[in-house]
Amino acid sequence: MAVVVGRVAALTDPGRRRRHNEDSFVCEPPLFAIADGMGGAQAGELASRLAKTAIEEVALTTIGEDGVVDAIRAANARVFERALKDPSASGMGTTATVALVDEVAGTIALGHVGDSRAYRYRRGALAQLTIDHSLVGELIRSGRLTEDEAAVHPHRSVITRALGTEPDVDVDTQTAEIEAGDLLLLCSDGLSAMVRDDEIARLIEAAGAEPEGAGAALVRAANEAGGIDNVTVILVELVEGEPRSRDAQPLAEEAHEANDMERTEEDVGAASKRRHGAGRGSRWPALLLVLGLLAAVVFVLWWSFLA
Ligand code: CA
Known about the structure:
The chain is of the alpha+beta class. 39% of the residues lie in helices and 24% in strands. The protein starts with a strand and ends with a helix. The structure holds calcium ion.
């Protein structure tokens, strides 16, 4: 038995202070990503959306760390070129954290730029897999700031590496091993800046590590702590199972559901978990065609019977 993707949940919420949601995400097993945009007016939304689209296009057809790097570089180029052409989007940028699960190898390829995080929850313990490319992150690592001081630092949202602000970007990558029973968590800083790691672990445990329930609890906790920023979480359960072949992995139905869910959540917030079945409407023309042919056959038979 291999370790494969089980249940997944992706939730995004504008938070309590902001009108716009500048976070975008990809939840198309085995590919998961979060982009947290920045820039004036609506440029942050544009940057994260451009990055999301580029990541989807590239990473779904690749594998491993190289695939993740290619996807993030493509996203960087897409955002950078748009910012050059469009004065209203000048200076925009975004974070990007990408996780590509390799069910055959039993690993996750991770790549990131900025401060959107990836965590692995295993048997009650939460481990941060990514290193924040942020001002406070660097101050903590050099011993000049404690975690508690960073939590209230006025510049805690300043990132030191972004996607889309330079022609090329330096991507941090790693391959993390996974076990059945692990839960992968990706989040924007709207969660990690509002809710401490030990509290995140406690909420996941209280939800029985079930992705949808745990995700809702995390978004609620970020909002209850003030909700000063957009908050996005993706939770991926890893279970024992048969690996899907690479060809079958971008499941069309699930991809459509994820997109529909995201649109719904952007409109009405994370409280809604309404899902639409994909392609259900497209069955009607086929059904009408069959009925039409049947009617024609009956008519011809009836006509020949009379004649
Ligand atoms: Ca943010």
